[in-house]
Automatic annotation (TrEMBL):
Domain CWF21: 58-103
Name of the featured protein: Cwf21 domain family protein
Organism for this UniProt entry: Candida parapsilosis (Yeast)
A cellular-component GO term for this protein: nucleus
A family per Pfam: cwf21
């Protein structure tokens, strides 16, 4: 274009400095982005470890409740004068029953399917 007459442009040329990689401002923003990414990664790892710790504590509490229930049953049967073999069978039956219930609850929570029905029926 030999002249800018009739082209709709004034002829003013602007320099695009933002995309220039050699500037000190670009380096500072890039370093800040790296720091932000590191902080986010640390937070994510910390949340994962906390989640794992909470789940192991919950699992331990559930097992503790089962063992307490079995111990109570054992004490009750001993006070009634039941034989050792019957006590062992009753305790094992209770333990398997409670652990199966806990596993079923856990499976139900994982495999829960939500169905969303429309609020108003369409005509």
């Amino acid at each position: 274009m030999s002249s800018n007459k009739g082209s709709g442009r004034s002829g003013h040329i602007e320099k695009n400095v933002i995309g220039k990689r050699g500037s000190s401002q670009f380096y500072a923003t890039r370093q800040q982005q790296k720091q932000d990414e590191l902080v986010k990664e640390r937070l994510r790892r910390r949340e994962d470890s906390m989640r794992n710790a909470r789940s192991s504590i919950a699992k331990h509490d559930e097992l503790r409740k089962v063992s307490v229930a079995c111990a109570e049953l054992e004490e009750e049967l001993e006070s009634k004068g039941t034989s050792e073999d019957e006590i062992k069978r009753a305790v094992m039956a209770l333990r398997t029953k409670l652990t199966n219930e806990k596993e079923d609850e856990h499976d139900d929570r994982q495999n829960k399917v939500y169905s969303y029905q429309p609020r108003f029926a369409s005509k």
